[in-house]
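Quick check before the chapter quiz. The format below is the same one you will see on the exam, so make sure you can read both the input and the output lines.
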Amino acid sequence: MNADLIVCADTVHTLADDPRPVEAIAVRDGVIVATGSRDESRDWRGNHTETLDLGAAIITPGLIDGHSHPVSGLELTDGTDLSGARTLDEVRALLSTAAAECAPGEWVLAWGLDPNVFGANPIDNTTLDKAVDGRPTLVRLFDAHSALATAAALRIAGVDGPRTFRERASVVCDERGRPTGLLLESAAVDLVAQHIPARSAAVRGARLQALLAEMAATGLTGAHVMDSNGDSEAILRAAEELGDLPLRLRVAPWCEPGIDRDGLAALIDGQGSGGHRWRIGGVKLFIDGTVDNGTAWLEKPDALGQSTDSFWPDPARYTEAVRMLAAAGVPTATHAIGDAGVRHVLDSLDGLGRPAAAPHRIEHIETLPTELIGRFLRQQVVASMQPAHCRFTRADHTDNWSTRLGGERADRAWRCRDLREAGVPVVLGSDWPIAPFDARAGLATAQLRRPAEDPNVPAVQPDQALTARMALEGYTILAAAAAGETGALTVGAGANLTAFVVDPLRSDPDELADAPIALTLVEGRIAHRSQS
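Here is the expected output.
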C-alpha cells in the first residue's frame, strides 16, 4: 500500500458506522486509505512510510469549531482583554493601565466587556472617559455586536447625534440627543472603528498563523469561519504565504441588508474560491442582533420594551436573498437568536430543500419555542449552537440576558439536548472571540452547562446538557456534515484527527477541559504534537 503515514493508538473512536475495533490508520496524500489493527498496519508500510504510535492516547475524528471568527477576531481582540473583569472598578483599573502605556495620540483599545458589570447603571462612556484621561478609546462589548466609545473618539469620528442605517443599528443618545458612547451593531461601531489606524494585511496574516496554531494545540483541525469582509481574503493569503494554515477553514462571507441582485450574484460567483486550506463555502446572514443589546428579534418585547425588530428593516428582503442564494445551490447560515428571528428563518427556508453542497443552518438559537423544534428536522436545517455562551448567564436569572428575557424565555436557553433528541444535527462551536476557542473546554461545557473547572457555578438549564458522545459528534462528524464532508475516520475521508490523553467519551468533563492534546493531524500533516 505504501502509506505516507500510519498513526496508531490503543483506542480509536472512528464514529463510523463500521463497529470493527481500530488501532491504526493509514494516510496517503492527505486521505485515509486504510483502518485496522496494529498487526494489519505492517502490510501498509513502504520504504518511506512514517509511523506514529501514540500508545495509550485516544484518537477521534478531527475537532471542528462550527462557528468562529479567527480573521475578523484579530481586530475584535485588539487591545486589553476585559473579559475577566467582574466590576466597574476592575474595568477602570485595566483601562487606566492601558492608557498609561499608550503613546501620545494613540488610541486605547479593549474588548470583552461584560455588560453585567454595569448592574442597574446605564451602559455609557462615563467610566471610560474618567479611566483613560480623555484619550480616544473604543471598547468592544463581549458580544462583538456593540462597543463603547469615549467622547474623544466620538469627536474624531464626527459622531455628535443619532444616525440612520440600512440595518437595525444605532448610535444610542440621551434625551437631549447627545451620544452616550454606546454603539449598537457593526454599522454604528464602524463609524468610530474606521478611524483607528489599521495594521497591514501582512502583520495580521502573521497573527492569524499564530492564532490558528494555538487553536490546533487544543485539538482543532478546522473551523467554520462566519465572516469574510473587507480585506479578509488578503489576510488569509498573507497567512498562507507563511506556510500551510494549521487549520482547514470553511469561510462564509456576509450578506448585509440592502444588498442588491448584483451583490448576491457576486456572493454566488465567489463560492468555491480560496487557497490550499481555506475555501469560500456558503453565505452568512443576520436576521437579528443580541438579547443583551436589545437588538434580538423576539415575538414579545423584552423587559425594556426592546428586541422587537428584525436586523433587516424589511424582513421580506431577507427572504428574497435567502431564496436567491438557495436557488443557486448556496448553503446559508443565518444568525438568529430570538424566537421571532428563528421562526422567520425557518419560514424563509421552508420548501427550499437541502442544497447539494451542504445544508442550510441557523446559528445561535438562544431561546427556542418547543413548536419550532420539529421544523428543524422536517426542513433538514442544522442547528449551530455555542453552549459556552451560557457562561454569560446565571442559573438564577439575575444576569442581563435573563432579566431582559424574563423567566419563561430564559428557561428555553440553548436547547441543545431537546434538538438532538428530536433528531436535529446540533453542530457545536465557540463563536470566538465571544467565548474561548479551546475545543476541550467546549466539549466540557456542552456536558456541564457551566464553565469547565468551576464546579461552584450552578449549571444553566442542566436538563439541556449533552452526553459525551453527543458533544463529540457536535464537534466532529456533525460539524463536518454541515460543510458537506465526511468527518468519521473511515477510508476515503480526509486525514484529520485529534488524539487526546484522556478519553473524551469516558473522562470527567472538568478533567477533559485541561488534558493535553497528544496530536492534531490536518490533511495527514502534523499541526500539533505534545512534547510530553
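If your answer matched, good. Residues 5 and 50 are 5 Å apart (CA to CA).
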